[in-house]
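Key result, reporting period 2: structure in, sequence out.
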């Protein structure tokens, strides 16, 4: 005898479902940066209504690529009323964000007490508790999970009825061609929610898959086809160093006279993760805000004698190759775009988070009423 399990929809529920229109899932992205998180959510089918950031450089990429409204604001000053108006008439509201948890010297955070770095996470928590969106998602540095402020954040969500799941995830598992571990949280008032299932664990995307098709350029040169495919100029010494570097190797491969002063000393010999070329056959190392400097990490191109171009770093972060970061070529700055791109949530990871949210909402729609 066939028994009907609780999850199986009744005929009436199936009939009802046929007439139900899909839920309008609307996200607001706090600390939106250049839109890595917002773009990924959008490409999973969510509408991103608004992005909030202190940095005015975020307006162009958020509005151009994510079609979200940009608010140049301190999140600490955003009110529950603001948030409700940005969500508008959503069926399911998603509060998303990646609160910066390092002291921000540019915003005078470094002069405040050590605990002040967590204030931004607490602002995010305040807004979640004041507006109770159906879904909350947070992406952050892995180290945050060991802090009391994190367990307090999770406990606060649970205390008002959220089902909370969080874990450390490897970005390579979601098709990001880059080794980067991140903390991901999903919380729902609608029922138990799952973190995204890995899609690329068996076959990670490599540096070759991601950037081999870009036209070759020299250090300090831009490609005619794309002003963002530009790399920084190398000093004569760094040019000799990169020529002596092999993919996946370190400065230890060089002749001693090429080594930096600090690496000749005993204390510096333990820092192999700088001055290296990337390996074509592997995902790239973590893209930091300094990716354009050959001496700042393993950011040498696998075979061209230069560091990564801005476009290559963006693609290794899994931004699409035509993502627009600036309106005019005058706005291109290695430092400025280094911050926007290096600090971004990889869009492919964000897309996986967005798909997990959709699967959760669609799964609930299948439940009998
Ligand atoms: C880790 S980045 C966010 C990356 C972004 N979610 C993305 O995926 O591209 C953190 C952002 O927080 C912004 N920020 C720092 N303090 C802020 C504040 N008090 N209010 C609003 N934004 C702030 C920074 O300008 C930075 O863009």
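The corresponding designed sequence is given below.
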């Amino acid at each position: 005898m066939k028994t009907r399990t609780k999850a199986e929809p009744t005929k009436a529920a199936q009939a009802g479902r046929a007439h139900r229109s899909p839920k309008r899932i609307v996200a607001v992205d706090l600390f939106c940066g250049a839109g890595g998180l917002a773009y990924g959510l959008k490409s999973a089918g969510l509408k991103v209504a608004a992005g909030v950031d202190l940095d005015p450089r975020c307006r162009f990429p958020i509005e151009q690529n994510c079609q979200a409204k940009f608010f140049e604001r301190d999140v600490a000053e955003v009110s529950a009323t603001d948030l409700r108006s940005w969500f508008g008439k959503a069926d399911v509201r998603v509060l998303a964000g990646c609160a910066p948890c390092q002291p921000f010297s540019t915003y005078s955070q470094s002069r405040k007490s050590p605990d002040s770095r967590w204030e931004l996470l607490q602002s995010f928590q305040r807004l979640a508790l004041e507006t109770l969106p159906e879904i909350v998602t947070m992406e952050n540095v892995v180290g945050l999970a060991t802090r009391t402020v994190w367990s307090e954040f999770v406990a606060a969500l649970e205390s008002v009825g959220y089902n909370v799941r969080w874990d450390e995830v490897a970005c390579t598992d979601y098709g990001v061609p880059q080794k980067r571990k991140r903390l991901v949280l999903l919380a729902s008032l609608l029922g138990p929610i799952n973190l995204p299932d890995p899609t690329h664990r068996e076959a990670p995307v490599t540096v070759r898959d991601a950037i081999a098709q870009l036209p070759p350029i020299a250090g300090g040169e831009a490609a005619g086809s794309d002003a963002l495919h530009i790399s920084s100029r190398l000093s004569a010494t760094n040019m000799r160093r990169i020529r002596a570097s092999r993919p996946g190797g370190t400065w230890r491969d060089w002749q001693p006279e090429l080594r930096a002063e600090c690496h000749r000393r005993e204390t510096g010999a333990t820092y192999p993760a700088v001055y290296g070329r990337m390996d074509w056959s592997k995902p790239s190392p973590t893209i930091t805000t300094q990716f354009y400097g050959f001496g700042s990490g393993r950011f040498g191109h696998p075979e061209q004698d230069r560091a990564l171009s801005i476009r290559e770093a963006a693609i290794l972060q899994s931004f699409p190759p035509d993502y627009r970061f600036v309106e005019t070529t005058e706005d291109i700055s290695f430092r400025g775009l280094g911050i926007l791109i290096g600090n971004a949530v990889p869009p492919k990871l964000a897309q996986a988070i967005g798909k997990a949210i959709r699967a959760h909402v669609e799964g609930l729609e299948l439940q009998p009423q």
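The first strand starts at residue 25 and ends at 30. The pocket of S-adenosylmethionine is lined by residues 31-37, 52-55, 58, 74-76, 98, 100, 104, 107, 120, 343-345 (CB under 6 Å). This case is discussed further under Risks and Mitigation.
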